[in-house]
Structure formats: C-alpha cells, structure tokens
Write a structure and sequence with these properties.
Distance between the termini: 90 Å
Strand content: 5-15%
Oligomer: single chain
Number of strands: 3
C-alpha cells in the first residue's frame, strides 16, 4: 500500500528542493495525488524507486525526460512571448482607435455648438429681430 507524504515532507526527508520535486512530478518520475484540495501529496515509494534507479548514476531515460521537459518549457515560453507581442500590437491599435475617437468627439462637439448657434440665429431671423440693430445683444442674452 502506498504511503502518501506532502511535498515539503519529502523534500526534508530526502534532501531535495521542493522545486526539484515539482520537476520530477512534471516529468512523471514520481506519482502525485491531486485529490485533496488543500495539499498535494506524493507517493513515498515512487521517490524511493526514483532514487534507487539513479543510485549508480543518471540514466539515459531520465536525461531524455529532462530534455523533453526543457523543450516543452521552451515552447511554452515562446508561445507566451508571441502572445505578449500580439497583446502589445492590440494595445497599440486600441490607443490609435482612442485617439481617433477623441478627435471625432471633439469635432462632433464643435459641430453641435455650431448647430446650436445656427438654431438661435434661425429663430431670430423668424422674428422681428432680424432687422433690429440689437441682434448681437439678443444672441448673447439667449445663450
């Protein structure tokens, strides 16, 4: 029957760094149980088997697994770098769109002011003010 211990306990018991144990888990050299939500536990027997396999020296299978692990991590890093580059391009596009939006909004607000001014002038033209010499004063008062 398997004896389960925490990763920290295994690191202390066998003199490994916890990060090294995580690498061994990722390359499937030791067995881990993710069933418990609060703690990850590993099979003590699988660690002992790993140590016994590598007592005489590092095996070719272990080296190949490490190479594969490194290549996989390198590929993941490349994908992340690519995603970050695409995110930067997207941010640049959004900044450009915001600049255009701000410019259009400014022009639209100016146009609205002109329309309001024209509406007032049109209203004055339809009254007797169109012939009045105080037309400008009326325009200022109506604002």
């Amino acid at each position: 029957m398997a004896q389960w211990i925490s990763i920290e306990e295994a690191a202390a018991k066998y003199g490994f760094e916890t990060e090294y144990i995580w690498v061994l888990i990722e390359i499937r050299e030791i067995i881990v149980d993710y069933q418990r939500a609060d703690i990850d536990i590993i099979d003590d027997e699988s660690i002992q088997d790993f140590i016994n396999r590598n007592k005489k020296g590092i095996t070719l299978m272990y080296i190949e697994k490490l190479e594969r692990y490194c290549m996989d991590k390198s590929q993941v890093c490349s994908i992340y770098a690519s995603l970050l580059g695409k995110q930067d391009k997207e941010i640049t596009i959004y900044k450009g769109a915001k600049f255009l939006y701000d410019a259009l909004q400014s022009k639209w607000l100016k146009q609205c002011d002109r329309v309001r001014h024209l509406e007032k002038e049109l209203a004055l033209e339809q009254t007797t003010c169109r012939t009045c010499w105080l037309k400008r004063l009326c325009m200022i008062i109506r604002k």
